[in-house]
Design goal:
single chain, mainly beta, 51% strand, 4-stranded antiparallel β-sheet, 123 residues, 0% helix, 7-stranded mixed β-sheet, globular
Length: 123
């Protein structure tokens, strides 16, 4: 059974930084594409970033490019999202997702999901 468990969310002031983690189990982590999505209040779930299985390539949503960095540690079965210059519009539940295959930016492309972690950015 695949489990993805996010951690590291919380409350942060605008302009601040935060790193969230997602630990995976039951997944052949080294060959899986990992991604982060988020869902803000009264919004649809949206793509944030994805990283290929070997970590060589990452893709980002326009809204976070240059501020967020996705990375992974295959030895620890963990993917990270480092967030900088946070703004109130980044407030959302952040979800970790996994799939076998190429990086995609649609939620329906991902088979496995974590339970989410809340990030709130205060102004």
């Amino acid at each position: 059974q695949v489990q993805l468990v996010e951690s590291g969310g919380g409350l942060v002031q605008a302009g601040g930084s935060l790193r969230v983690s997602c630990a995976a189990s039951g997944l052949t982590f080294s060959i899986a594409t990992l991604a982060w999505f988020r869902q803000g209040p009264r919004k649809e779930r949206e793509f944030v970033a994805a990283i290929t299985s070997n970590g060589a390539f990452a893709t980002y949503a326009d809204s976070v490019r240059g501020r967020f960095t996705i990375s992974r540690d295959n030895a620890k079965n963990t993917v990270y999202l480092q967030m900088r210059s946070l703004a109130p519009e980044d407030t959302a539940v952040y979800y970790c997702a996994a799939r076998y295959g190429r990086a995609r930016d649609g939620p329906d492309d991902y088979n496995y999901w974590g339970q989410g972690t809340q990030i709130t950015v205060s102004s």
